[in-house]
Amino acid sequence: MKKSLFKNMLYKILLNVFNLIVPILVGTYVNRALGVSSLGKVQFAESIFNYFFIFASFGVYQYGLREMSRLKNDRDKVSQLFTSLFTISFVSGIAALLFYLSFSYLGYSDKSTFPILLIFAFNFIVNIFYVEWVNEAMENYDFITVKTIIVRSIYVVLIFIMVNTPGDYHEYAILLVFSMFLNNIVSFIYIKRKIKFDFRNISIRQHIKPLFLVVIFSNANVLYTQLDRFMLGQYVSTKYVSYYVIPQQIMGIINTLLLSIIQVSIPRLSNILGENDDKSYLTLLNNISKAYFAFLFPAAVGLYLLADVGVFIYGGREFIAAAPVLSAFSFYMIILGIDFILANQIIYVKKKEHVLVRLVFLCGFLNLGLNALLLQYDLFTPVTAILTTAVSNLLLILLEYGYIRRYLKVDYHLFELGKMKYFFIALLFIPVSYLIRQYVSGPIPLFISIVGINSLLYAGILFITKDQVMKMFLDKVKSRFNK
């Protein structure tokens, strides 16, 4: 029996609302408690760790989600796939850990980041038990939501107890690892009660090539934002890593909430394609895209207009220099959202990841070249770093869209008025916000006024124009209350 896509979306939104509140609550506290210097050390060490972690996870989440969604009604095949991917994850995790420890010792054993790198090493073992892809493929969003809320609540309490001064950055790194361990082990125990290991028909070789391709395209941030962070820390200053990461975290909080709308549809899209129902696939794809754009464009424009206020509230006065970086990230958020649809909901679910790999590499190396050019002329800053990344990603989505239209022959129109109108409506926020700033001062009142008034304006326009997304949402809510 298929679970309600709308119910799954509500669970996902509830989860991401909670995940929105927690980083804001924890982030505003940790940013002030640790300060720019200590926080920069953790974030720089994390950027190094992320390079090796890519090969530890080995694309199992994205690949496993797609493949499990296609065969989730066959109990034996589910067990075989789960066993195979768990085995691969175990081997890749141990191998990545050994390379990581060697690199950390040879390159940073005499630096203050070395103890933090050792703390993050435990994540390689913890990741072996990461099976959330199974829960999402089975659409167990109720369990995921409840479990995550409990685990993250424990994490928040421990943060306030253990992290109080700039010298507590080791404790902060330990809690990051501990929260990941708790989250993964609970999910693993839950899944193991439903799916047993089956080593009789284990298959490894057939999964290696597609997994390797997934590793590359699903970790595009290695040649994009992760590259920016590493180059800032290595060649400029770890302080500038914080000026880059704080805006990235703010954008990430909002983007995660927005992606709730389309993430829950990926298993369903894969399942529909597995049944060769192209018409239903295209209908769902277009409906989900419109719903996503209806939230993405106003959120991005709002983020741009509130960049200074957002950085001040989230990071404090010490991070106010990061406001222009957040403005640049608002533009990047739109590009990132469009890429997520084109790459994950179309190209990947149609099993054309080999094409994605080529496109990602091409644009990723363009970003690397632009960063190197900026370094040579002493122009490499957090703002220019994210702008070059945005330009590279813009080229990426144009190439993806061209491939989808010309070669995949998917009748998907990205730039049609039905999708782009939300951006034009959101542009009305600019004059409205300017007027509000003439009469309202103070970060909190200004934030509430701009968000509140513009939200009412946006919702009112959608309601008056009888927008399809607004109508669909209201009809769903009304049907729930009438039951």
TrEMBL record:
Top-level division of the source organism's lineage: Bacteria
Pfam families, sorted: Polysacc_synt (PF01943)
Keywords recorded for this protein, A-Z: Membrane, Transmembrane, Transmembrane helix
Transmembrane segments: 9-30, 42-61, 81-101, 113-131, 143-163, 169-191, 211-227, 247-270, 291-313, 319-343, 355-374, 380-401, 422-440, 446-464
Localisation per UniProt entry: Membrane
Membrane topology: Multi-pass membrane protein
InterPro entries: Polysacc_synth, PolySynth_Transporter
Chief localisation class: membrane
This protein's GO CC annotations: membrane
Name of the protein described by the UniProt record: Flippase
Provenance organism: Mesobacillus boroniphilus
